[in-house]
Backbone:
């Protein structure tokens, strides 16, 4: 099984475990209501997990996730890794040792000696009888949740929707364990009060069929056996790595970097692992898992001797439109000397993970919108500079909200103008509909802004909008701290010209026929014109919309 398929299976197992943990935390949080509420929730929880399908799914996921984690630890040629990845590995290796006491005292005890584990009995042990175990359980909950959240974050951060959802997911990730711990504390106080009632504790232990001394000794032996086996497995993996390292030292190769040193690495190392071995700065946003393209290199020498790219590597390289001599450093294991040039600056962030390069873009079909205030310069001549800044910021907030609300990207704010991109990920059809919806929202927002600033303005603010759709080169461009996602090309040039044409036609919107066609919107009711554009031989067919409000009946409810 390839490393790609190993990670896919391990990811599926992780989802099962995450579902179990989330439901378990929700059950704990019911303690904020009462101990009885926790027991009611526990009935439903056990109905899902304490049956044959649930047991196979849960313990199968535990075994698969754990075994594959050890296998991937063995497979790594270097233990040098980013801090976040080292933290996730370390926490993951701690989890079995932290949870084994709780698992043997609940699930294993129920399975082997028919001991029930109601919340009252468990909380009695963790809060009253042996609070040191309770403290360890709190630590275990924290470790499990942090480990899971790191994994979820680094898995989702390449999804286009993730930046918008991240604040909400962070809120859930923060509140869920806090509520679970507060529920445990509340239940602990309730159980402590009940434990002071004469006869309550013996009655509880009898009802739950708590393990007797002989059964407790048996469970202790099982727990110790698991810990010994787990420790032995870790030692075996580390010893196997050491033996392999000794063997690899007899067979090494050289990875030369056109921008830096030459690193001698064992055969079997990936180029990224060689970079880490030689402490060569090398971008790798996903941690060397083939989920992004930031580690890619141009192979200057030795390309013919490299093994062909795997299916996973081919998919990533195709997505970024890589040239034939470009490979992913984290997936390429040279067998002979090789010379490479890293293509992405080591400081690149997750936002640029799928961009072809920080200094080059990729051609995409998209919609581009330009908007500009009318007469603002003359109005600004009669206002104090701070007042001008105030009005501009209110204007930018209005149009920016309209753009992002429609699904676009606010690209540039220049003077009193704005440029926005739509459909970067979804294509020009969706982008065109989004751009038209944004134009409508911008004009509506300007109406509200004029009403709000009526006392400050001699005349209402007016806006002109131009929209065009077509191919453009999209990428992260700039220098130093001023990198931003933008687009260049004829489509951008035409969209800017359409915005300027709104002055000539005394209209709020000039939109190309390309946008109307891609959006599936019939604009035949609006005047048609052929607009000449500098450095373009063919004129652009456009529709002139005097008042954007007239578009409302023609636009879909959602872009």
Residues:
């Amino acid at each position: 099984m390839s490393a790609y398929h190993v990670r896919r299976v391990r990811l599926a197992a992780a989802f099962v475990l995450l579902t179990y943990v989330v439901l378990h935390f929700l059950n704990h949080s019911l303690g904020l209501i009462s101990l009885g509420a926790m027991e009611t929730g526990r009935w439903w929880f056990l109905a899902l997990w304490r049956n044959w399908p649930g047991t196979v799914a849960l313990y199968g996921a535990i075994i698969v996730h754990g075994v594959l984690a050890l296998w991937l630890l063995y497979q790594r040629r270097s233990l040098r890794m980013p801090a976040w990845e080292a933290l996730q590995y370390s926490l993951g290796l701690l989890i079995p040792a932290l949870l084994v006491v709780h698992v043997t005292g609940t699930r294993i005890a129920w399975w082997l000696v028919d001991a029930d584990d109601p919340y009252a009995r468990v909380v009695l042990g963790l809060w009253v009888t042996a609070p040191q175990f309770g403290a360890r359980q709190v630590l275990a909950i924290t470790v499990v949740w942090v480990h899971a959240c790191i994994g979820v974050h680094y898995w989702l951060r390449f999804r286009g929707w993730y930046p918008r959802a991240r604040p909400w997911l962070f809120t859930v990730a923060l509140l869920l364990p806090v509520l679970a711990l507060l529920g445990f504390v509340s239940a602990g106080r309730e159980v402590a009060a009940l434990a002071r009632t004469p006869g309550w504790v013996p009655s509880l232990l009898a009802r739950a069929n708590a393990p007797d001394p002989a059964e407790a000794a048996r469970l202790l032996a099982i727990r110790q056996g698991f810990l010994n086996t787990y420790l032995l497995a870790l030692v075996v993996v580390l010893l196997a790595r050491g033996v392999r390292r000794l063997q690899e030292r007899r067979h090494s190769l050289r990875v030369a970097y056109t921008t830096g040193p030459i690193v001698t690495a064992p055969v079997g190392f990936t180029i990224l692992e060689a970079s880490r071995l030689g402490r060569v700065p090398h971008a790798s946003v996903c941690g060397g898992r083939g989920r992004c393209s930031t580690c890619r290199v141009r192979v200057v020498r030795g390309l013919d001797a490299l093994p062909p790219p795997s299916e996973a590597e081919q998919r990533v390289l195709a997505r970024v439109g890589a040239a034939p001599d470009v490979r992913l450093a984290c997936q390429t294991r040279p067998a002979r000397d090789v010379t490479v040039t890293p293509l992405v600056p080591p400081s690149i962030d997750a936002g640029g993970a799928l961009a072809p390069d920080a200094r080059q873009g990729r051609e995409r079909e998209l919609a581009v919108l330009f908007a500009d205030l009318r007469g603002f310069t003359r109005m600004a001549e009669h206002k104090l500079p701070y007042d001008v800044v105030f009005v501009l910021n209110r204007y930018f907030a209005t149009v920016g909200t309209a753009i992002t609300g429609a699904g676009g990207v606010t690209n540039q704010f220049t003077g009193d103008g704005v440029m926005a991109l739509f459909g970067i990920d979804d294509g020009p059809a969706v982008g065109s509909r989004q751009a038209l919806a944004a134009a409508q929202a911008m004009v509506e927002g300007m109406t509200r802004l004029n009403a709000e600033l009526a006392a400050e303005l001699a005349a209402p603010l007016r806006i002109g909008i131009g929209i065009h759709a077509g191919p453009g080169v999209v990428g992260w461009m700039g220098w130093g701290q001023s990198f931003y996602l933008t687009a260049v090309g004829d489509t951008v040039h035409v969209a800017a010209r359409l915005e300027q044409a709104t002055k000539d036609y005394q209209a709020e919107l000039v939109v190309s026929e390309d946008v109307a066609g891609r959006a599936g919107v019939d604009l035949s009711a609006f005047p048609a014109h052929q607009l000449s554009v500098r450095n373009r031989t063919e004129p652009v067919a456009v529709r002139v919309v005097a008042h954007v409000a007239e578009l409302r009946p023609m636009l879909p409810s959602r872009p």
